Amino acid sequence: MKPQPQLLLFFLLQFTIFGYGQNQTANPQPYEHFWDRTELKVGFVGTGFWSNGLSIGAEYLWKENEKAKTRKGKGRTNTHQFLFNGNFGFATNFSSKTDTGAYTNFGLTWRRTNKKGKQFHVELNPLGYYRSFLPETYEVNGDQVDKVFLAGRGYYAPSLSVGIGKRRKGKVRSGSYFNISYSPRFNYNAGTLPTFSLQYGFRFNFQNKRP
Amino acid sequence: MKHTIACIIKIGFLAMAIWWVSACSNDHTLSNLDATVFVRHKGADMPAYIKGNASEKVFLITLHGGPGGAGLGFQGNAFDRIEDTYGVVYFDQRGSGMSQGSYSEDDLTIDLMAEDVLALVKVIKRMYGNDSQFFLLGHSWGGALGPATILKDQSEFLGWINVAGSHSPKDLYFEYIRNFERVAAAQIELENSIPFWESVYDELDKVDANAVTLDDFNRLNSLAFDAEDYLKDDDFINDVGNGGIEVSDYNLLTFLWNLLKIQSILDDDIIGRLSFTEQLSEITLPSLILWGRYDMVVPEFYAQEAFDNLGSSEKRLVFFERSGHAPMFTEPNPFAEEVIQFMNQNK
């Protein structure tokens, strides 16, 4: 199977456009500075069993609207956000040393937050790259054997994550998240390796320190 | 805020540095090896787990089953004992275990996998010296890859150890049918697990007795593993001791995906087609053939066929009377003794 980034970008565009074809109010919060709109995040990434590591990233709020609806006679207002999203992570299997790698990916997050601050989000990162890091490696060409410096392989690795979270309005630690993430690696051996991971961490907005 | 961000970045890089050092550490002390190295060859990066006592620079290279098995799947009491005396190299073959790389399905051939094993030999010589010596051991599918490797260059090896090896998957399907009929009749006569063995006849009725299909082969292969479970229950085969793959050694999802992928590619070339029976006479290495008496997965017929056809002047056939397809787990001590004795005699 060949990687098809064009297809992913197409879906990302559709998602962005049609995600806004709803009744919405004006941007409810004024954001003056870049850092007002930016949250940093840091957390665990891995499977828990075979690979565990650290992920850091940032989210930049692109668009936000409030959507009001009535449910069981009560009015509810949910906030919908689109955020540009970037991540960098590193995970390893301490036991076997055969599953070590770093990744980076970039894309768009759609997030819904209810009035209690509970969140649901979908994160699509069509631009993704995974680089494995191998321990001591020797390359064999005919009778020649050479030690490889910083051995590893790069794979195109987009990702799709679905998760929940909690917003802490006005706090420096502005939220937490728990995601289940799917990231295929193209071309892995003679095909495309599907990988799954869990992500759990916290978001920070240091502008919230200001009075 | 900049200070805080800088601190987070520093902590992140420090954590990564610690992981990196941890992930790269290997112990190359010959008397107590514990190293994981990768062999990069023709588009693949394949891990070799080198363990044991190689103070004499004598290594036993193991070839796992499958295709698509796991090199570390050999680990257990038997190989612990072998590691006490010799270096043991557990190897994830191309497209198996935690091997990675990038190549096309057309590039994935048994011939290339045999070249990978010879590449592994070159890497170990590079690491531990050209005076390193090697024995080759293949289990199940490794019993086909072993001859494929040796027939390319047997000068690299001091001996060949065939453990329930499938040197002729071409004929295995029909031997399954014959073996099931034989064992089922015997077990029913002994009044052991009669419902299961009668159901074996029903299964045999469902498969084509004249032509091999992949579906029918897989059905009988799966039935063979079930049959061994019943033979364990009826006390013909010992319980499996501790051994096999540890959960932490392999990413299960990667392992399973590799297994399914490589089998989907290679099965057409192997099942009903591949046979080294005619070429076994070209193998003149000292050879040891180890088989479980109740092996239903690669029936004992192949033990005798391998013994009769090998061109080795020095060869020995051993049946383990309380074992099925994995005598290294069901009779680990006699298994280890046979392997060590063979290596002692031929190093």
Quick summary of this structure?
The complex is a heterodimer of chains A (about 210) and B (about 350). Chain A is mainly β and about 210 residues long. Chain A is built from 1 helix and 11 strands; from the N terminus they run αβββββββββββ.
3D architecture notes:
- The complex is a heterodimer of chains A (211) and B (347).
- By secondary structure, chain A is mainly β.
- Chain A has one helix at 5-18; strands spanning 38-46, 52-71, 74-92, 101-113, 118-132, 137-141, 144-148, 154-156, 159-167, 173-188, 191-204.
- Chain A is elongated and about 75 Å long.
- Chain A starts with a helix and ends in a 7-residue tail after the last strand.
- In chain B, strands 1, 2, 3, 4, 5, 6, 7, 8 and 9 form a 9-stranded mixed β-sheet that branches.
- In chain B, β1 (33-41) and β2 (44-52) form a beta hairpin.
- Classes of the chains: A mainly beta (211), B alpha/beta (347).
- Chains A and B meet through β2, β6 and β11 of A and α1, β1, β2, β5 and α3 of B.
